[in-house]
Backbone:
């Protein structure tokens, strides 16, 4: 059923009605379990009588909480679209006016329209703009806002339990809302919409790809992998930019490469919004470049997918994405050699910190990778892959545990020296990679390999291990 737009009973054209909203749940990807909660809201409209007969109170307001761009607006539209009801929307920042009374009268008008055209969804974007705890803002601006908020409370109460007008509001700051707003009967239901994970990102990309001429072999996994921390709005934009890329080259299909390039541009856009000091950029670049450069020494690790110093959610520094043999990694079937190589690469940031900044200026920038190295070394020893063999029984023998740790330490030290040696032999390459990273923030596999080709890679003497 399409959106059913009822004719307004009075002649005045509704000002806040969005016409032609035809969004369905299938247009919103990566929702997982949240979808069930939203389907229930649709039922409040489609099966309202059933709820009322059984004395179940229909919530007056639903709060969609989450960072910008995760699809809160899109979801509110999808609820209206699925229920086949009218969609009224306003951004709360439009409520906040300098003149006392203007905001309040807009709220009244909005709800009057919604009621006259019921059933309807009223969507209030950025509720926190008006819904902050009262009395926090002083002066006449504060008074005006309080008046608006009071009006909103009155309107919300007017619909309690009727289920003909349901208000959906979005906010990134549910914590600062006025307590009166979240009282029972008002916004008493909160739904959190987090940033999408890897699978969510794949699904979002695919939803937006539906309407575009994609090459049949597009690798959505690769694009999703390098867009860690991005939200739906950014992913949708990547598809658009990729389409423009394709058009510009006079091609007829969007390729993985178009998408990866677009993703990089999106990432750079994000970067511009963060600020780090030039020294900080450089230090992170040295850290990441070291891993990429040391990895060149090892056939299995050489093929990095990209290296970046872009800050990301939950990952303050940059990172190098290795092209891993996922099956082997997941099944834990790692050979002795691949573990040693891995340990060496993970120790590269620590080695670089020592070489570039000196023993007495070490930072903790390499703490995480050093930790990876340590646990890999223990895995190696416990797996019976070091020179000394320890059996399973050693898990339970206390004095053997010390042996295991000292053997792991020996391996870590050996790999550390190796990482340092590789970096010292390739100082020139390190410098150009660091410079390129500082300038461009991210290097693709090809860009990185070009630098390696151009400046050469010096291999160390074969290992004595
Ligand atoms: P918010 O209201 O959370 O700031 P929006 O709903 O305005 O985010 O999202 C902006 C656009 O980003 C949407 O119109 C849609 O194109 C895209 N988008 C965001 N999240 C999703 C998602 N989960 N699935 C599909 N597209 C999405």
Residues:
């Amino acid at each position: 059923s399409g959106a059913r737009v009822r004719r307004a009973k009075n002649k005045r054209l509704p000002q806040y009605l969005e016409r032609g909203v035809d969004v369905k749940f299938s247009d919103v990807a990566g929702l997982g379990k949240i979808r069930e909660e939203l389907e229930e809201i649709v039922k409040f409209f489609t099966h309202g009588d059933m709820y009322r007969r059984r004395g179940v109170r229909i919530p007056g307001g639903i709060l969609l909480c989450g960072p910008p761009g995760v699809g809160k607006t899109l979801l509110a539209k999808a609820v209206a679209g699925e229920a086949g009801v009218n969609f009224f929307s306003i951004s709360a920042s439009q409520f906040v006016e300098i003149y006392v009374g203007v905001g309040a009268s807009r709220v009244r008008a909005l709800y009057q329209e919604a009621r006259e055209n019921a059933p309807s969804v009223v969507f209030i974007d950025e509720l926190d703009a008006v819904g902050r705890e009262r009395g926090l803002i002083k002066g006449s601006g504060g008074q005006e806002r309080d008046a608006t908020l009071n009006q909103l409370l009155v309107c919300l109460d007017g619909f309690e339990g009727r289920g003909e007008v349901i208000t959906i509001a979005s906010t990134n700051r549910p914590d600062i809302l006025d307590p009166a707003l979240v009282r029972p009967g008002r916004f008493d239901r909160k739904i959190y919409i987090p940033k999408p994970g890897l699978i969510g990102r794949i699904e979002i990309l695919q939803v937006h790809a539906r309407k575009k001429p994609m090459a049949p072999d597009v690798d959505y996994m690769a694009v999703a992998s390098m867009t860690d921390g991005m939200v739906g709005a950014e992913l949708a934009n990547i598809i658009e930019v990729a389409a423009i890329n394709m058009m510009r080259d006079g091609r007829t299909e969007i390729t993985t490469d178009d998408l990866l390039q677009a993703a990089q541009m999106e990432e750079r856009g994000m970067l511009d919004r963060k600020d780090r000091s030039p020294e900080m950029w450089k230090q992170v670049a040295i850290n990441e470049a070291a891993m990429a450069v040391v990895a060149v020494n090892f056939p299995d690790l050489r093929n990095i997918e990209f290296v970046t110093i872009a800050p990301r959610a939950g990952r303050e520094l940059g990172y190098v994405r290795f092209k891993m043999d996922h099956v082997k990694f997941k099944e834990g079937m790692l050979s002795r050699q691949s573990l040693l190589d891995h340990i060496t690469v993970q120790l590269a940031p620590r080695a670089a910190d020592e070489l570039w900044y000196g023993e007495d200026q070490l930072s903790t920038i390499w703490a995480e990778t050093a930790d990876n190295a340590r646990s890999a070394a223990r895995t190696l020893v416990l797996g019976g892959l070091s020179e000394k063999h320890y059996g399973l029984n050693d898990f339970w023998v206390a004095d053997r545990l010390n042996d295991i740790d000292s053997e792991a330490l020996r391996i870590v030290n050996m790999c550390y020296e190796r990482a340092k040696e590789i970096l010292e032999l390739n100082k020139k390459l390190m410098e150009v990679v660091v410079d390129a990273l500082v300038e461009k923030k991210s290097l693709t596999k090809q860009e990185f390999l070009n630098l390696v080709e151009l400046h050469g890679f010096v291999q160390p003497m074969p290992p004595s291990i």
Observations:
- The longest strand covers residues 165-171.
- Residues 28-30, 68-74, 170, 204, 207, 232-233, 236 surround adenosine-5'-diphosphate (CB under 6 Å).
